[in-house]
Amino acid sequence: MESKTYIEGYIERARNAQAIVETYSQKEVDRLVWAIAKAISDNAEELAVMAVEETGMGVVADKTVKNKVKAAIIWHSLRDKKSVGIIDRNEKTGIVQIAKPMGVVAAITPTTNPIVTPMSNAMFAVKGRNAIIVTPHHKAIGCTTEAVNLINQALAKLGAPEHLVQILDQQSRENTKNLIEAADVIIATGGAGMVRAAYSSGRPALGVGAGNVQCIIDKGVDLKLAVPKIISGRIFDNGIICSGEQTVIAPAEEYEAVLEEFRSNGAYVVRDPKEKEAFRNAIFIDGAMSRHAVGQSVQTIARLAGVEVPEETRVIVIEADGQGGEDILAKEKMCPVLAAYSYDTFEEAVGIAKANLEVEGMGHSVAIHSINKENIEYAGEHLNVSRFVINQPCASSAGGSFFNGLAPTNTLGCGSWGHNSISENLDYKHLINISRIAYYMPDNPVPTDEELWRFDES
Predict the structure, then answer these.
(1) pLDDT value of residue 415
(2) What are phi and psi of 126, to 5 degrees?
(3) Phi/psi class of residue 23: alpha, beta or left (left: φ > 0; alpha: ψ in -120 to 50)?
């Protein structure tokens, strides 16, 4: 079948389903959103096994946890939010906001998160009374299709309109191109080329930027608390999470103690120049992340480098020889490897992070372990990222958690720094249009010319 005709069929079915769900009440909508989350949570392990077997990346246990936790925290976040009818009434301004659907959402989903990303995209879309069509990564078609099938089985039990959530059964660049040009809005989660294509489609697009999370340890921090958190974030799902820690930037006077604490928690610390170069060559090929290293275990990375590490090693920490463009280890490493740096002043630590982000990861996230509010907010003012995660594992917190106020998601916007349209975590509010009623407010105070143009120099 010709591609445009093929896609037109999906769009037509989606529009028919969307016209029905648009008539739903808030309670009916939320019931569907609940069912999507529950379908993934109830089948978390089965889907994790499928994802690892098909993609060859990640860890079954970690993906199982991710499937359950993401389903839970996103549902918890969405359950009490208004997305139908009047969602806000401001008596002071006279503005009443009314939520309206966007229509048909096209979602391009990645091989690194082939289950939870389509799940969250579907939850956000349906919360806004939209239909959604998923186009999966070609290396994750089977597991993503199974996830969508389980979602649809759950929705059918509730009498939801058929084809509210669809997935392309023929994956190709042409089909994806025609889909994103026909949908009303696009969510693009994945590589830079795909995100650029979404933004070039002529349709509103919501994309993500590259990750390269810089992790700063402030002076005086309890290392026995901070280091295990950093390791847990770095090794989660074999390091393929875009919000996983990529560096450890530690104070010079505590640097040896930091490295020793890493060793005590299962790290293999690399300081030998030959071993450093071996790991660089194993992780990067011609300046880009090697596909053979993405999402692989510590032992596999060590074998690729030809370096023998203890079997119980959990993470590899490599002392970097420079910041930014001076050492390729400053870039994102989608495997359980950290680059280590030392600093004298906190300002220098922020400078190292900035230099690394200028090479890759601008706009994404920074992790800070600190009890110094002044330092935390100094970093917040001087580093151009969209989220700062404090005293938490970034991999499991930047996308929202029960323990911070970030919107739970799997799509992390990076703002104009990362060539994205949003600098926050994507959620349902990005998939609704809002009509505003502006009531006449005759009693609003109008300033005199003197009041208007007086400028306070203090």
Answers:
(1) 95
(2) -70, -35
(3) alpha
Q: Average pLDDT in the 196-220 region?
A: 90
pTM (predicted TM-score)? 0.95
Going through 372-444 in order, the beta strands assigned E by DSSP cover 385-390, 432-438
Give per-residue pLDDT as tens, 70-95.
Answer: 999 999 999 999 999 999 999 999 99
Nearest in space to 423 (alpha carbons), one of 452, 391, 386, 451: 386
Alpha carbon distance 268, 302 (integer Å)? 10
Give residue 146's pLDDT. Answer: 98
CATH 3.40.309.10 at 214-399, yes or no: yes
Q: How far is CA 22 from the centre of its chain?
A: 28
C-alpha to C-alpha distance for 244 and 56, rounded to whole angstroms: 19
DSSP, collapsed to helix, strand or coil, labels residue 389 as: strand
Q: Which architecture does CATH list for 3-208+422-437?
A: 3-Layer(aba) Sandwich (3.40)
* Catalytic residue of the set 242, 335, 394, 414: 242
What's the pLDDT score for residue 192? 75
Locate 91 and state its tokens.
Answer: 């008596």
* Residue 457 reports pLDDT greater than 90: no
Residue in the block written with tokens 């003197």: 450
- Check residue 161 and report its DSSP letter: P
Place of tokens 């490897």: 337
The answer to whether the CB of 118 falls within 8 A of the CB of 134 is yes
Mean pLDDT, residues 424-434 taken together: 97
Specify whether 242 is catalytic: yes
Alpha-carbon Rg for the chain, nearest whole angstrom, is 24
Domain layout of the chain by residue ranges = 3-208+422-437, 214-399
